[in-house]
Amino acid sequence: MLFYDSSIIILIPTLLFSLWAQVKVKSAFARYKEVKSSMGYTGADAARALLDSNGLSDIPIEVIEGNLTDHYDPGTKKMRLSKEVYYGTSIAAIGVAAHETGHAIQDKEGYAPLKFRILMVPAVNLGQSFSWILFIIGIFMGLSPLVNFGIILFSAVVLFQLVTLPVELDASRRAIKILQGRSLLVGDEVYGAKKVLNAAALTYVAAALTSIAQLLRLLVIANNRRN
After folding, report:
1. Is 65 one of the annotated active-site residues of the chain?
2. Which domain holds residue 212?
3. Annotated catalytic residue: which of 34, 62, 84, 100?
C-alpha cells in the first residue's frame, strides 16, 4: 500500500499549485504570442542582438522542436529556441529569447547558482533514476540503509530544484533589464514580456514545492514503516 497511504495528502496542494502554474504560463504565452512587437524583431533577432551586445557573438542559436522547449545549454554553449520563439515576432517570443540570453550571460559571468546547478547534474540524474527504486526496495525488504540512501539521493533532486529558482528568477530579471536597455520592446510591451516571464517563474516554484512535498512524503512513509 506504499502509493495509497494517507501521506499522499501531502502532495495534493503542490499538485494543484503545479496545475495552476501550468495554466498560467500557457495562458500568458498564448495571450502575448498574439501581440506583435512594434519593432518587428523575431525572437532569433532579439537573441542575436542581445548576445552580441554582451560579448557573446560566438554562441549559435538553433531551432528545436516542441512548445516552450527553449533553453540555453551551458555545456555546448548553444542557445536553442522553439520555432514559435525563433521565428515569432511577438512580445512573448522576444521575452523568452531574452530570458535565455540571461542564462548565457550568467554563464559568461560565472554566476554562482548556475555553476552549482551544473555541478549537481550528475547527482540529480542519479537521484531521479534510482532514488525511488532504492526506497521502494528498501521499504519492502525492511532494509533501512537502502531506504535512507534512496532519501539522500532524492534530496539531491530537491536541492537542484531549490537552486534552480534563483537561476531562473535572475535570468528573467536580466532579460527585462537588457530589453529595456536595447529598446527591443517599447512601452507596455515590456510589461507584457514581464507577465510571460513571471508566469514561467511560477512553474519553477511549483517544481520546487512538489519536490519538497515528495521528500516529506518519503520521510513520513519511512518513519511509519519503522514504527
Report:
1. no
2. 6-226
3. 100
